[in-house]
Every structure is written in C-alpha cells, then in structure tokens.
Amino acid sequence: MSDHIVTGVEPGTLMLTIIYIRMSIKQLTLAILKPDVQRFVNYRKYVESVIYDAQLKIIHNEEIFMTRDRAEAFYAEHKGKFFYNRLVNHMICGPLGVYVLAGNEAISVWRSLLGSTKVYREFQANLK
Hints:
- By secondary structure, the chain is of the alpha+beta class.
- It is 41% helix and 18% strand.
- It has helices spanning 14-24, 35-38, 41-53, 68-74, 84-91, 106-114; strands at residues 27-33, 57-64, 96-103.
- It comes from Schistosoma mekongi.
- It holds the Pfam family NDK.
C-alpha cells in the first residue's frame, strides 16, 4: 500500500510537490529569468530576494537552454512583429532560469514585480 495520497506519482518528485502545494496554496506561476540575469549570480540572488519579500515561495528552479524551435513556439504570438527575431535570439543566447512560484495571488504578485511590458512607460522600480 502506498504511503502517499496521489496515485501514479512517485513520492519526492516535482509533480507530487506541485500537487501538494496546489492543495494548500491558491496559485502557482512560472517565472523565467532571461540570460542577461541568469548568468550573473548577484542578479539571480537579488531577484530571489524580491520574490521572497513579496511572500512568494520558490517551489522549484532549474537552469535550462532553450532551442530556437522552442523559443519560436513560445513567442509565436509575436511572430511578424519588429522585435520577434531579437526576442527569440535573446532567449537562446544563454541559460534561462526557470522558477515555479507559489503563493496567494502568485500570478498578479509576480506581474506587479515585473512592472509594465512597456518599459519606457514604467517610472517605478521593478525587476525589468
């Protein structure tokens, strides 16, 4: 007999951790640190401290390298826009930090930490 409540998922796996978190915390969100942040330890530590200060928990993080095909698929909605090629090339130029964040209103909290998508419109401090 299994000693865990989720059948088909091995104890100690990331998936089981996420399932247990989902049972106790309202939201999960994905945070991706682009190569210009991921390659510098001090930048990563700063972002992680901001995440913790915002009452979010880092459930999982890992470093990945994105392929061109995956980057193009990820940003498919922007295909044809003037910044598309620059964005894809930036995402494949080095390692990415991928984080699963958990907390109450995690999505809106993370978005508020990022600030506006139009950086030139943003006057306050944010993670961009």
